[in-house]
Amino acid sequence: MNFEQLEYIVYVASEKSISKAAEKLFISTSAISQSISQLERELNITIFNRSRIGTTPTPEGNIVITKAINILSNIKQLNDELCNLNIKKEKQLKIIAATAFFDIFQEAVTNFNLENPQISIDVEEMLPEQLLKNFNHDRNDVGFLPIDKEELNKYPKLGKKLINKARIGIVVGKNSNLYNYEYVTPADLNNEKIVILKNTKNSIVKKFSKSLSNHAILTTNNPRLLLNVVKESTAFSFIHEFTVKNYPTFRTDELKVIPITYTDESDYIYQDVWAIFSQENGLSSSSREIIKHMLFQLNK
Question: 78 to each of 70, 83, 160, 163, 224, how far by Cα in Å?
Fold first, then answer.
């Protein structure tokens, strides 16, 4: 028995579904199912009844799940207390983040600073490809970026923590013909005007748009300029859904993010969001705390 297995059964009990729990935990359904089956064999009980209508705890399972909740709560409380003690000893946090995070990153850093005013924060923002090449194991404590795992695996000295799965879409203004769409396919976007963020090499977007014929009205490395041009024109731009979550014009419906899909709304396209750090140095307490703030902003 391990803490990971306890976490799995608590999530499954809460979601009443192995597949939904797997989505929340960012792991495969087979991995969580095998882990629970291993725990059931170890304890010689059946923890869940599995059927077409859902996954529900057995009487024995309820006992184990209740104990698991208490154990995980105590472990979290212990970790939080130790983390708070360690943070008080730390003086500086050096962060490097992809420009895609935009205003939610500013919110996370501001809230972290309010809770930890003794820590001096040093922030750099750049495109994901530049971030990976420029991450310095001695200079940077933690980095944040959306990127495919296969690409990230090319940097074996980097530690990585999956923190979110971000839906990819297009951003449009009210002048766009696409504004009222619930989702868009490649056919919907063909021949529409586009605004391009310079030097981005998102493999998912590249695959999605390979058959498109679009007129680029602007190419820029300035995300705010990109959004302002989209807002005032009929053009669209590819974007991660979280990018404009806290952006003022998004709140007033002047901008809208529309999911992209190859076929229909059941096939939305996502990209992993990672926190990266030095594999050798590990995560500092303040790095763990800023990750919590980023998670809050991404999930709220």
Answer: 12, 8, 23, 22, 41
Question: What is the DSSP annotation of 254-270?
Answer: SEEEEEBBSSSGGGB-E
The CATH code of the domain at 91-162+275-299 is 3.40.190.10
The rounded Cα 100 to chain-centroid distance in angstroms is 11
Which residue from 272, 219, 270, 223 is spatially nearest to 243, judged by alpha carbons? 223
Domains 3-86 and 166-271 share a fold: no
**Among 25-34, 100-109, 142-151, 247-256, the least confident range:** 247-256
Residue 50 has pLDDT above 90, yes or no: no
Task: For the chain, give the percent of residues with pLDDT over 90.
Answer: 32
d(CA 279, CA 27): 21
The DSSP call for residue 44 is: T
What are the E-state strand segments in 37-192?
48-51, 54-57, 92-98, 120-126, 142-146, 158-173
- Phi and psi at 167, nearest 5°, equal -75, 135
Q: What is the greatest pairwise CA distance in the chain?
A: 65
Q: Which helix (H) or strand (E) holds 31?
A: helix 29-43
User: Under CATH, which architecture does the 166-271 domain have?
Assistant: 3-Layer(aba) Sandwich (3.40)
- Whole-model pTM: value is 0.71
Helix (H/G/I), strand (E/B), else coil: 73: helix
Residue-wise pLDDT tens digits, 112-138: 989 888 888 998 888 887 888 889 888
| DSSP letter string, 280-294 | TT---HHHHHHHHHH
Would you state the pLDDT for residue 63? 92
Short-list 37, 282, 276, CA closest to 149: 276
Is 195 exposed, middle or buried (CB count within 10 Å of its CB: 0-12, 13-18, 19+)?
A: buried
User: Which CATH number applies to 3-86?
Assistant: 1.10.10.10
